[in-house]
User: Which sequence fits this backbone?
């Protein structure tokens, strides 16, 4: 298996991740475009304010959709900080078919 | 100012294995955190339904604090120098003199006093480990494997953390390796580590340890409401299943993912390609533990704690016991 070396994620990927999070958590009252890419998802001023249970749901959803494993919880905590950091991780780690 | 510039900070999955690995790497031994974890038989399971140290039933998913250092001593032939103190002044003086000598040193602390940890994450855990590798003015430079970069901690906070009271109090405990065989062949340590883990999980004649412990957890979790003061208390304890499996530096799914990485790395060293397949199987076992932690967190969060839900949780845990029993029997046969 190889991984992408180009780590700069595109807007399409960020939008897709926002939609995935909202679908996974059943959030219907916010539009994906209202979610700031760089604001913290946990405890920040983002339109999405998530908790640690939501965090595990997101990790599992990312694994299912993109085939990326986020096994290490310490690392996961840093990666799922924001849409930007998730997108950078996916762009870097998603297996190239 | 003292800073050991040759010490390299690395993030780790777990504080003790991350700390010991960092010190061994600094001493010239090329070993990864999962390899250290597997060799020192870090994977474990114990269920405590009634215990004098716990006010509510609980479980552990790793060996006792300190065992990773002790087992690395036994199996890798590393010799450590250790110190405990009653007097904080003396404890600080010894730490400072080691740093002056350019020796990075591991320290046991109460996690609660680490100012660099966000306040909402701070809890009293007396068995957190980290490496201290420098001092600038009144601040120590810390390599805490939970953080991506080195951090600074005021001397007063470190003193409070090192000399906190309570169960398993650190007593200023410090350690560092004084002798490391950097050319050691890892084959025999790997085999010994796996054999001991298989023994702990399959054969220890104690009803609450290993697979027997997972089964006891599955049977007894339906009794947890009897121990709870009210629904809030029960929901808090059920949500702690998620914390014990996923947080507290477990490396994910109660250390099962870290053990899978160990098996993957061990396969070429001991020339047992079957370990690669077992590594994949352990990953899948970990995925199911993660589903359990999510299920527990969800029903706890939603206060959905009826007997049918707890029965469902019990069945999921029992399923893990069956899967791990088969897994460790296969692992034992593979390394025979």
Assistant:
């Amino acid at each position: 298996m190889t991984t992408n070396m180009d780590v700069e994620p595109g807007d399409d990927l960020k939008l897709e991740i926002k939609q995935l999070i909202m679908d996974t958590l059943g959030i219907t009252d916010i539009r994906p475009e209202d979610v700031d890419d760089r604001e913290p998802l946990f405890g920040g001023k983002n339109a999405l304010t998530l908790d640690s249970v939501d965090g595990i749901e997101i990790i599992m959803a990312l694994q299912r959709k993109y085939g990326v494993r986020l096994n290490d919880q310490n690392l996961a905590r840093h990666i799922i900080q924001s849409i930007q950091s998730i997108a950078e991780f996916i762009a870097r780690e998603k297996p190239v078919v | 100012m003292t800073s050991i510039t040759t010490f390299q900070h690395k993030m780790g999955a777990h504080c003790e294995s991350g700390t010991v690995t960092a010190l061994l790497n600094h001493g010239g031994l090329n070993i990864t955190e999962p390899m250290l974890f597997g060799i020192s038989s870090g994977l474990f399971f114990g269920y405590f339904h009634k215990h004098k140290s716990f006010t509510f039933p609980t479980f552990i998913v790793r060996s006792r604090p300190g065992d990773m250092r002790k087992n690395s001593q036994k199996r890798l032939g590393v010799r450590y120098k250790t110190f405990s103190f009653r007097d904080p002044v003396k404890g600080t003086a010894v730490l400072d003199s080691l740093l002056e000598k350019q020796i990075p040193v591991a320290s046991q602390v109460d996690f609660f006093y680490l100012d660099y940890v966000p306040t909402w994450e701070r809890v009293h855990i007396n068995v957190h480990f980290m490496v201290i590798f420098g001092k600038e003015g009144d601040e120590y430079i810390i390599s805490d494997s939970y953080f991506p970069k080195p951090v600074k901690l005021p001397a007063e906070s470190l003193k409070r953390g090192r000399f906190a009271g309570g169960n398993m109090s650190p007593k200023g405990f410090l350690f560092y390796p004084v002798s490391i065989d950097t050319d050691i062949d890892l084959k025999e340590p790997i085999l010994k580590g796996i054999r001991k883990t298989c023994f702990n999980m399959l054969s220890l004649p104690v009803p609450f340890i290993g697979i027997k412990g997972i089964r006891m957890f599955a049977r007894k979790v339906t009794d947890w409401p009897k121990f709870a003061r009210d629904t809030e208390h029960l929901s808090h304890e059920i949500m702690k299943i998620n914390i014990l499996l996923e947080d507290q530096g477990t490396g994910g799914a109660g250390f099962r993912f870290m053990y899978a990485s160990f098996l993957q790395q061990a396969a070429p060293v001991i020339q047992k390609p079957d370990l690669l397949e077992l590594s994949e199987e352990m990953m899948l076992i970990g995925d199911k533990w993660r589903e359990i932690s999510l299920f527990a967190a969800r029903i706890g969060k939603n206060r959905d704690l009826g007997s049918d839900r707890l029965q469902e949780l019990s069945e999921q845990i029992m399923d893990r016991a069956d899967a791990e029993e088969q897994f460790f029997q296969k692992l034992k046969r593979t390394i025979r």
Observations:
- Chain B touches chain A through 28 residues (CB under 8 Å).
- Residues 274-301 of chain B form the longest helix (28 residues).
- Chain B has a mean pLDDT of 93.
